[in-house]
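User: Reviewer 2 asked us to show a designed sequence for the structure in our supplementary figure. I'm pasting the structure tokens here. Could you produce the per-position amino acids so we can include them in the response letter?
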């Protein structure tokens, strides 16, 4: 993912959650506990999950398109 982001000129936020603290109930943390391998929780904010301030960013959608295009080789 880091290489794709570098090729697409997309900033990434790296975050590692401590297992002794509660976290959100998105599919990413739930899946990673069952897989037993390093996972990536990738996405852009949605109004049902995040505040209106997070929804104000317009670059997130463009970054996601560029990141996925770099990953899929388009």
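Assistant: Here is a per-position design you can include in the supplement:
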């Amino acid at each position: 993912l880091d290489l794709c982001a570098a090729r697409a000129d997309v900033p990434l936020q790296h975050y590692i959650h401590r297992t002794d603290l509660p976290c959100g109930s998105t599919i990413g943390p739930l899946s990673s506990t069952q897989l037993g391998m390093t996972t990536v929780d990738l996405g852009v904010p949605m109004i049902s999950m995040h505040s209106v301030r997070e929804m104000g960013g317009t670059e997130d959608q463009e970054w996601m398109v560029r990141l996925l295009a770099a990953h899929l080789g388009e």
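For the response letter, you might also mention the following. Residues 43 and 64 are 8 Å apart (CA to CA). The mean pLDDT is 77.
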